[in-house]
Amino acid sequence: MSSTIARNIIGALVVLCLIVGVGIHYLNREDADQRPAPQHISQLASIRLGMLPTDVTLLLGKPSVAGSTEIDETGQAHLTYIYTKNNNADYALDITFYGPSRLSMQAVVVCENGGLSSLLGLDRYSSEPAVLGALGTPSHSSIRSGGLEKVISYSAWNASFKIARGKVIGICIHQGKFIQYDKESPLPLRRQVSTQAS
Description:
By secondary structure, the chain is α+β, with helices and mostly antiparallel strands. It contains 3 helices and 12 strands, in the order αββαβββββαβββββ. The chain has helices at about 1-30, 55-60, 130-135, and strands at about 45, 45-50, 65, 70, 75-85, 90-100, 105-115, 140-145, 150-155, 160-165, 165-175, 185.
C-alpha cells in the first residue's frame, strides 16, 4: 500500500514539474520579443498627422522656411514647412502636407531632426543597432544619394528613423508605409555567409 502511495506522489510531482516547466517556457518565449505592440502613432513634436497648414501656423507660428505649394503630375498638391531654432543649429522640424488640392492639404509626414522627442523609446542619442534591437528588421530602407544618410521605416508603427554614422539623427511619423528619398543610392548587397558543419 505504501509503495502505491509513493508512486502516486512521485507521479503527481512529475506532472507538476512538467506543468511548471511548460509554463516557464511559454513565459520566457513571450518575454523574448520586447518590441512594442503595433500602433498608429499620430503625433510628434506637438504636430499631429492630418493637421492643416493653418493649424500648424496657429500652433507654431510662421515657419522658418515655407516652400510654395506644388502640384504633381497626378494633380495632387504638396507643401513643406520647416521650423528651426536659433539656439540649436542641428534642429529642424519638417512638416510635409499633401492632398487633392491646395485647400485640402493635410500633414502626412512629420520629421524632427536634432530634437528631444522620443519615439518608441528611441531618440537622437540611440544607435542604429539599438533601433534594430528594439524594433527588428525594418519594413523598408532608403539611402540618400551620396550614401551619407539613410532612413529605415517600420510600417507597424508608421515610424521612421534617419541614420547617419550609425546613429539616429532624426525621427519621423508618416501616413504611408515608409519614407523614401527622392534621389537615392542603391541598397548595398549583403553577402550571404554560409556555414558548413565540420
